[in-house]
Design a protein that fits this description.
binds adenosine-5'-triphosphate, disordered N terminus, elongated, nucleotide-binding, ATP hydrolysis activity, magnesium, binds magnesium ion, hydrolase, 46% helix
Length: 458
């Protein structure tokens, strides 16, 4: 319950809010500050009202405090709030409830009343008002310090906890601005058909990365990590990215380089991504501009092209000065076609080779799709898999076909045998028997070690 005085103060505050909203739209910022301080003194003495403006973007970058505030306010929804935004995306499991623009949310912190308000101006912003009833006796500064040093960090902390607990990872596809959907990709490290050793190494690398904030600070390096995933189509590169995101609970930004307008566009796009995220650039070899680098310095690219040098400069430079816990992943089907500049030590921290399915990989897929750990046909299937270049995607497709387990596995054997015949025919046609494919069939295997490998570049 508010006292009469508090109710009057509330009215004044409402008037002030109107003035502020108008002021932020029409009047330069330095003048706003002056006007507000005069109004504040005039109307609210001895009560001193303080106002914080939290804009969606600050210096062209996403303002993390804005993001945090939006999430935090959804925890402060009470029956007194008249308007809420309610939505449910097809892939989301629960409703998303947000405070609507223009609505006020009341909060208290260490005996202080705070009033939050979403304001839509030219740029989205949130306003926090709080007042100090003892302003005349010099405690204003004390309360401001509390808000800045304790309350806002508490808002950030609440946001971080909620983010780490959230069950779904968001996938942002490049658009304007980044549009997001919930990533309901079931891929996890458990379901990935990869050599267990490689899987473990990647997970350990990720664990080490997220734990080493202080290390990165101490050695003066940007807290980022780059992975290059290479291998034929259907071997699980995109699935691995989803598994990494699900494992770390990082959001994914899927960047289509072809639609980015020049290095400037790239810069503003990437600075618009949040911390604790993975930026993925798929099929990097297919981006003509990136191969066509020539000797151009990084400022000389055409205005509408993203050059490799622009990209690399960004990776090297911009994330050093802003952004924490960033992961960048490039994928390619043809590592040999990449510009050597991208492969140099220090560019990508790990090169991960995703290759054809191995017997181990098959067992993981069988366990996922059929919930079986063994079967009389396993030996035969594994023998065929060792002889062939067959991708996990091809095997997964066979395992998804309906019927009972025997039917499905017999179908898979048939599929693998047909594939082997085709490969033999191709080899007969090529005649020489000296190409790599012949070697694969004759030796019976490319070697399990070769099928999934990883290099740590630095
Ligand atoms: N290693 C794997 N483990 C589990 N499933 C896999 C694996 N590789 C492929 N799959 C299955 O095949 C589908 C396609 O795989 P994915 O998109 O990850 O391949 P990719 O290597 O990214 O291919 P591309 O080079 O064409 O982008 C996945 O959705 C998944 O069902
Ligand atoms: Mg892919």
């Amino acid at each position: 319950m508010y006292s009469t005085f508090a109710a009057a103060a509330m009215l004044v505050r409402t008037i002030l809010n109107e003035v502020q909203t108008l002021a932020t739209q029409l009047i330069p910022q330095w003048l706003q500050v002056k006007i507000l301080s005069i109004f504040g003194q005039f109307f609210t003495n001895p009560t001193t009202q303080m106002t914080l403006f939290i804009k969606e973007h600050a210096n062209m970058e996403l303002n993390e405090l804005y993001q945090a505030s939006e999430v935090y306010l959804s925890t402060r929804i009470t029956s007194s709030i008249g308007q809420l935004q309610v939505s449910k995306a097809p892939r989301e499991k629960s409703l998303s409830i947000k405070v609507n623009r223009g609505q006020q949310v009341l909060d208290t912190f260490r005996g202080m009343d705070l009033v939050w308000e979403f304001v839509t101006t030219e740029t989205q912003q949130i306003i926090v008002n709080y007042e100090d009833m003892s302003g005349s006796n010099g405690k204003t500064e004390h309360k401001s310090v509390t808000v800045l040093n304790n309350y806002l960090p508490y808002v950030m902390e609440t946001f971080k906890c909620m983010e780490s607990e959230k069950r779904s990872v968001r996938l942002y596809a490049y658009g304007r601005p980044w549009g997001s959907i919930n990533l309901d990709h079931p891929s996890t490290f458990d379901t990935l058909a990869m050599e267990p050793e490689l899987k473990r190494e990647i997970m350990e690398d990720l664990d080490r990365f997220v734990k080493r904030k202080d290390f990165y600070r101490r050695v003066g390096k940007a807290w980022k990590r780059g992975y290059l995933l290479y291998g034929p189509p259907g071997t699980g590169k995109s699935s691995l990215v989803a598994a990494m995101a699900n494992y770390l609970k990082f959001d994914i930004y899927d960047l289509e380089l072809a639609s980015v307008q020049g290095n400037g566009g790239l810069r503003s796009l990437l600075t618009g991504t949040a911390n604790r995220s993975i930026v993925v650039i798929e099929d990097i070899d297919c981006s003509a501009q990136l191969q066509d680098r020539g000797d151009a310095g990084y400022d000389h690219g055409s205005q509408n092209q993203v050059t490799l040098s622009g990209l690399l400069t960004f990776i090297d430079g911009l994330w050093s000065s802003c952004g924490d816990e960033r992961i960048i992943v490039f994928t390619t089907n043809h590592k040999d076609r990449l510009d050597p500049a991208l492969l140099r030590p220090g560019r990508m921290d790990m090169h991960i080779h995703m290759s054809y399915c191995s017997p181990n990989g098959f067992r993981i897929l069988a366990s996922n799709y059929l919930q079986i750990e063994n079967h009389r046909l396993f030996d035969e299937i594994e023998r065929l898999i060792k002889e062939l270049e067959v991708t996990p995607a091809e095997i997964a497709e066979e395992l998804m076909k309906g019927g009972d387990v025997d039917d499905v596995l017999e179908g898979l054997v048939g599929f693998l045998e047909k594939k082997r015949e085709k490969q033999m025919e191709l080899l007969d046609e090529s005649g020489s028997g000296k190409d790599e494919g012949m070697e694969t069939v004759e030796t019976g295997s490319k070697g399990v070690e070769e099928k999934a490998e990883m290099e740590i570049v630095s």
